[in-house]
Write a structure and sequence with these properties.
Rhopdopsin 7-helix transmembrane proteins, mainly alpha, 519 residues
Length: 519
């Protein structure tokens, strides 16, 4: 009997102990589960909202509670710190980006000599960045500082759409520039014209159309969601956690890998391939040709170096963000008890990546200013002339004039000793070299001999001596008028036409030497 009582007493104590332990475990699991919902958010602002909404949607569904590690407290402090850093960086990008990209577009628009294939692609790239800066950045700053989204569904879909369109224009333009540099080296008979080549215009149209099409899934995927937060009804714009279309469900799962492969790896791979081919092509050419065209090879290398610099800047700006997202996909485990340090690292890398990606929208004009002497001269002429003393400007003009005269002497020598191709309907004067008599797109399609009057020469000289982005001194005028008067051609009527004529004739001289001319 005593033994039976002891056994019953032990059973009661065991039952009470197990019951108490079960209640404690269930309470701890509920607490840890609620905390884990907050700890999963700091991966990124968008992912945070997505996870919270997803958990709210699934709260009504029966599920077995899972044991999760305790909440990480460091990400909240990091998020508050970077919120203000992101705001400052976005404001700087907004100011510098608008000034730099607007100036770049103005330079290419105002100067006809800058309207060649590579520069038009650079202008297209600048226009895409400008749209992103003017529309997306102010709204993103407001979204970062405020809790509620008051702009409606339209802007919620428009902002990510424009952002992806801008990035698409950037990467496709960089690929087109790399291909253009290879074509410039491989096609020795290719002549640089004035204006927008037809193929370049087609390229730009295709770039914009393809970029817009590839950005459509972003507009479909983003939507507004209403949620309760501390007793308030907040409207949030984010990538909706539940996509109804099967393709959008697949896009949501594969988005990070798609962005990494197409929007990051593809332009770098394209640049590596075509720059390797370009290097092999340059090494294959004869040394004599390189010596004869030393000045033009320098110009060609400057443009190639400029394009490579733009690609390098793009890679450096977008690498942190893509690296953060891919690492989160591959090595991060929310069940790992030691995940807090890794989570803090990913959060810092994510915010740095967001800032660097924003900087890419304003960095291209700065890179062009630092790498290209021609763009540097144009930027200084547009932005800095008002703050430079007259002595420095006069010195710059003098150095530019000396360099121009040296180059013109070489062109005059080529002009006097070599032949330019014959025009179809014109006849060369007796004792004069055979040449291309007129430039149809420049002088209204005329293709006949016409005497140059002294009055036309005087008018041309007055207009040619006006100050512009390029030094148009008397040497350029003298060479053009010499060529025009000796061959009875219509003289240029403006400074721009004079420079265009000079560049065009120089290109044809070099082509007849079978050395080619490329930029």
């Amino acid at each position: 009997m005593r033994f039976q009582i002891i056994m019953e007493t032990r059973c009661v104590f065991c039952f009470l102990f197990l019951l108490t332990e079960h209640i404690a475990v269930m309470s701890a699991q509920g607490k840890d589960f609620n905390q884990s919902r907050l700890s999963m958010g700091p991966l990124s602002p968008t992912q945070k909202s997505t996870i919270v909404i997803g958990n709210q949607i699934n709260e009504s569904m029966p599920r077995r509670p899972k044991v999760l590690p305790p909440m990480c407290t460091d990400p909240t402090e990091i998020r508050d710190t970077f919120k203000y850093i992101n705001t400052v960086v976005s404001c700087l990008v907004f100011v510098v980006g608008i000034i730099g990209n607007s100036t770049l577009l103005r330079i290419i628009y105002k100067n006809k000599c800058m309207r060649n294939g590579p520069n038009i692609l650079i202008a297209s790239l600048a226009l895409g960045d400008l749209l992103h800066i003017m529309i997306d950045i102010p709204i993103n700053v407001y979204k970062l500082l405020a809790k509620d989204w008051p702009f409606g569904v339209g802007l919620c879909k428009l902002v990510p759409f424009i952002q992806k369109t801008s990035v698409g224009i950037t990467i496709l333009s960089l690929c087109a520039l790399s291909i253009d540099r290879f074509r410039a080296v491989s096609s020795w008979n290719r002549i640089k014209g004035i204006g927008v080549p037809k193929w370049t215009a087609i390229e730009i149209i295709l770039i914009w159309v393809l970029s817009i099409i590839l950005a459509v899934p972003e507009a479909i995927a983003f939507d507004m969601i209403t949620m309760d937060y501390k007793g308030e009804q907040l409207r949030i714009c984010l990538l909706h956690p539940k996509q109804r279309i099967k393709f959008m469900q697949f896009y949501k799962k594969a988005k990070d890998w798609w962005l990494f492969s197409f929007y990051f790896c593809m332009p770098l791979t394209c640049t590596a391939i075509f720059y390797t081919l370009m290097t092999c092509e340059m090494l294959r050419k004869k040394n004599g040709v390189q010596i004869a065209l030393s000045d033009h090879i320098k110009q060609r290398r400057e443009v190639a170096k400029t394009v490579f610099c733009l690609v390098l800047v793009f890679a450096l700006c977008w690498l942190p963000l893509h690296l953060s997202r891919i690492l989160q996909r591959t090595i991060y485990d929310e069940r790992d008890p030691n995940r807090c340090e890794l989570l803090s690292f990913f959060l810092v890398l994510d915010y740095i990546g967001i800032n660097m990606a924003s900087v890419n929208s304003c960095i291209n004009p700065i890179a062009l200013y630092m790498v290209s002497k021609r763009f540097k001269s144009c930027f200084r002429s547009c932005l800095c002339c008002w703050c430079l003393p007259p002595e420095i400007l006069a010195m710059d003009d003098k150095q530019s004039c000396i360099k121009l005269k040296e180059e013109l002497q070489q062109v005059v020598h080529l002009w006097n000793t070599h032949i330019i191709r014959r025009s179809r309907s014109a006849v060369a004067p007796s004792g004069r070299p055979i040449l291309m008599y007129t430039i149809p797109h420049l002088f209204g399609g005329q293709d006949y001999l016409k005497e140059v009057s002294q009055n036309s020469v005087d008018v041309c000289k007055q207009e040619c001596q006006q100050r512009g982005p390029y030094t148009c001194d008397e040497t350029v005028f003298s060479l053009c008028c010499l060529i025009m008067s000796e061959n009875f051609l219509t003289p240029p009527s403006t400074a721009d036409e004079s420079i265009e004529l000079y560049l065009f004739l120089r290109a044809h001289i070099l082509k007849d030497l079978q050395l080619g001319h490329f930029y």
